[in-house]
Amino acid sequence: MTSIAPRPDNPSSHRQLPIEPQPERSFIQKLGVGFQTPAQAEYGADAYPSLLRRVTSFFLLIAVLVFLGVAVAASIGGVLLVAGFLLEQAISS
């Protein structure tokens, strides 16, 4: 059986795996619009999302939160409007 534990007769290597160059992508592809091939996994010390991806994600998160807030407020308002209408109908009859 083989082991991956470091041993004196098998010193660990501090070599980093080679990173294949990424092909140039257009601005639309960087935004994630349209069909895209699966991205190659990034690894190593520099495996962080780009600034464009961080900013885009931040604005999309804000947009989703605003949309959900408006949807919840509209549904609560609709329930209160219907409840008020039904209460008026019950009082008037």
Description of the structure:
- With 93 residues, this protein is an all-alpha fold.
- Helix content is 51%, strand content 0%.
- It contains two helices and no strands.
- It has helices at residues 27-31, 51-92.
- The longest helix has 42 residues, at 51-92.
- The chain starts with 26 loop residues before the first helix and ends with a helix.
* Sheet with the most strands, sense and barrel status: none
**What is the total tally of β strands?**
0
CA gyration radius, whole angstroms: 28 Å
How would you sum up the global shape? elongated
Proportion of beta-strand residues: under 5%
Could you write a compact summary of the structure shown?
The protein has 93 residues and is an all-alpha fold. The chain is 51% helix and 0% strand. The protein is elongated and about 90 Å long.
